[in-house]
Amino acid sequence: MDNMTPVINTVTRVTVIIMAGLLMGWALHHETRTVTLGMSLGLLAGLVNFRYLALKVRRVTQAVADKQKSSFSLGFATRISFAILVTMFSVKIEHFSLEATIAGLFIPQLLSIPVGIYLGIKNKL
Description:
Elements lengths: L4 H24 L4 H33 L10 H17 L5 H27 L1
Helix pairs in contact: 1-2, 1-4, 2-3, 2-4, 3-4
């Protein structure tokens, strides 16, 4: 798959749908409010990191295609700093589950695997 835009858009849609379900669970199921809020916070931060990584990958590939001599990076320090910031927010405010927040940070990146496989098979048919 040459174009990663469909993967990014599909992962964004699936993540937003999961977040909507979690927020509905937060409103309706009072016993799991900390977990659903923590997972929603983690999903939001994971989605921001996922989309930022996609932006950096596009810039790096464009720089390589244009044969620019400037140095480039994938923004690892920015993405890890944002993840640490969200984790510290989850620790500081007791309404968020730390475990769910950390798990939510990884879900958008993990969703890109089955979405990429699905879209790859769909495009071959």
